[in-house]
Each structure stands twice: as structure tokens, then as C-alpha cells.
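Issue 218. Parser rejects a valid record. Input:
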Amino acid sequence: MRNAICSRIVTLLVCAGLAVQVFAQTDRRMGLSGPRTGDRRMALVIGNAAYAASPLRNAANDATDVAAALRSVGFEVVLGVNWGQRQMEDAIREFGEKLKAGGVGLFYFAGHGMQVGGRNYLIPVGARIETESDVAYEAVDAGRVLGKMEDAGNGFNIVVLDACRNNPFGRGFRDSQKGLAQVTAPTGSFIAYATAPGSVAADGEGRNGTFTAALLEAIGTRGLTVENVFKRVRERVARETSKRQVPWDSSSLVGEFYFTGQPAAAEPAKPAIAPAAAAVVVDPKAVELELWAAIKESRDAADYEDYLKRYPGGTYEAVARAKIKQLRAAVA
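Output the parser choked on:
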């Protein structure tokens, strides 16, 4: 009798343990629990600037610098610069597959973006868009990114879209709405936009756009949750643009995520005037290597010309010049 009771107790304990595991897995797939310390961090970062009709000054720099900053805080990063539609779609698909193993996912895009029929589209380099009907076939639906994240079920994802520049194809459009459309973040995700829905963001005059410059600084500030990182970004961008550009976000996160460490258990008293936030220190050589890694297999001479323009006398100057000569000879 005693053995039978013990056997039943063991069975109940095993079942209870299995139930806890099942509920925990379900919670994570539904985004009902936050990321855990030590979770894998994965990011896909794309910056498109070399558009034939309307090139952008900052987008490639923004993506390269964000990739370096994310690597410095523990992310595994795939960086794409001046990608076409097929490259973007393949990378998004592979990114979704990686997320199925669990962890934190982050997608960043800098470049041209537009809304058509209430849907947001990211514009690849080389897209041939003359009318609205071309967009679905030539661009990448931003919903594809969110869809792959939902399919992965990893439970904690961040999407950052610095893609609210003016629509360079607007003349052939019946519906010429500005900026990107409002999208509600699926459970367990956070979506950040460079500016409010229906508004546009400037490309910027320096190395980085106003939004991404603020993001690079905020990522390096210890003890900020992801929500507070983007609150810092919003405050700085609104101040620097006299509120002409106000970043916006949509969140359905559960739990807290820190890019750069959790706050100390007992923080010292704050001074009357808080010191300026520490910015992420980006190694210029690391940025150059990031850019070269992104273009080294390119079949477009313009990518190597852009590298030489940014880094005259750079590490790969001779290789870049040889690539340009080879590609031009193939076309001639």
C-alpha cells in the first residue's frame, strides 16, 4: 500500500513538472514572459542608400553603426548594405528560422519606406516602381518581418524602422500618403518608428540621421529598459528638430529587456543635474570592416566606389579598386 502511495506521489510530481514546462513554453511562445538573462540575442540590420532615383546620405552609415553597436552589447548581427529585394527576403526568411531556437530578435531597417493601402513597404535598391501596383511586386512588405517573428514564437522581438523619408515615387501614385502607416505590435513585440505615423523624417546632415544618432547614444546607457531607450530617443529627436520629427512606438511587451545591463540593486543618490548619458563608442576600424563584410561579394561597382569614398586609403583599397576594374571590364 505504501509503495502504491509513493508511486502515485511520484507520478503527480512528474506530471506537475511537465505541466510547468508546458505552460512556460506556451507563455514564451505567446510573448507572456520576458526574456531571461543569458538568452541569445539576434539581429538583422539593413541599410539601403544607393537608390538610383533618390539616393540617401545616411542610411548605409546608420545601419553599419547600429550593427557595430548591437554587437558591442551581445547581439549576433547579420548586416546588409544596399540590398535588393531577393537579398532582403532571403535574409528575413533565414532570420525567422534562427529565431525559432528562442531568444531576443531585433530587426532594423534604414532606407526608403512607404505605405500603400494601409500596408508598409521597405524599398530595396534596384526596385522599379512607377505606380502603386508595382509596390507589392518590387518592395518588401514590412509585415513579412512581423510574420516571421510570430511564426518563430520566440516571444520577444524589436522592430526599428528608420524608413519614413518622402516617397520618391509619389508622382505615379493615386494615394500619396506620407510616411508609414500605424501598425499595432503583435503580442511580445515592440515596434519603433523614426517619426509618427503619416509623418516623414529627414535624412540628416551628419554621418547619421537624427533618429539613429539618438538611438546609438541611448543603447549605450546602462540600466534602461527598451521602452526607456526609445523614450530617450524620442525626447532628443523632438528637441533637436523643434518637434518637427517625433519618434513613435507601439508595444505589447511583457517583461523587461535591457540592451546594456540591468540597473544596480542600490543606486547612489542622483545629483541635482544628471550627467549626460554615455554614448556607445564605435570603433572606426570595426565600422570599416562591417561595411566591407557587407559588400565584399557584391557585383555592383558602385558599392566599391562608395567604400573608397568613405575610406580612401582603407584596409581594402587595393582590393576595391581591382573589383571595380574587373566589374567594369565585364560590362564593357
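Fixed in the parser; the record now loads. The CA atoms of residues 202 and 317 lie 31 Å apart.
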